[in-house]
């Protein structure tokens, strides 16, 4: 039998992963994440992202807002420009916790058969 507290904890973890899943569900945002990763530690600005994409600057800005709001990237202001850097650690930690919790639930389901 699966403990109700474990179910409640897993559901809470799942709910905290929703912004990550929403942000990563779009192929343009996936590409932006890869472009930001490719830029390295210094990050990349909207102009350079725009040069790498077929998206308009406003569309890129919209996708960057979604990524920023979900905590996947962080802005770094340098002079008058904003550079975007990856900020994946916390999100990946939460997703990893979700995977562990779900695997534990599945294990208990299989043991009860």
Number of strands: 2
Principal-axes geometry comes out as elongated
The termini sit apart by 10 Å
Cα-based radius of gyration, to the nearest Å: 18 Å
Largest sheet: 2 strands, antiparallel
Low-confidence stretches: none
- Strand-residue proportion: 5-15%
Helix content: 55-70%
Give an overview in words.
The chain is mainly alpha-helical. Helix content is 68%, strand content 11%. The protein is built from 5 helices and 2 strands, in the order H-H-H-H-E-E-H. The relative contact order is 0.17.
Summarize the structure.
This protein has 113 residues and is mostly helical.
Task: Output the keywords.
single chain; 113 residues; mainly alpha; 5 helices
Secondary structure: elements and pairs:
Blueprint: H1 4-24, H2 27-39, H3 46-52, H4 57-69, E1 73-78, E2 81-86, H5 89-111
Antiparallel strand pairs: 1-2
Helix pairs in contact: 1-4, 1-5, 2-4
């Amino acid at each position: 039998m699966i403990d109700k507290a474990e179910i409640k904890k897993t559901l809470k973890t799942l709910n905290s992963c929703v912004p990550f899943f929403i942000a990563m569900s779009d192929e343009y945002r996936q590409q932006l994440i890869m472009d930001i990763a490719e830029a390295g530690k210094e990050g990349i600005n909207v102009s350079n992202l725009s040069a790498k994409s077929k998206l308009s600057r406003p569309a890129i800005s919209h996708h960057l807002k979604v990524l920023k709001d979900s905590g996947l990237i962080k802005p770094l202001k340098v002079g008058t420009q904003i550079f975007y850097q990856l900020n994946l650690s916390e999100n990946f930690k939460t997703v990893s916790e979700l995977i562990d919790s779900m695997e534990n639930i599945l294990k208990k389901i299989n043991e009860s058969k």
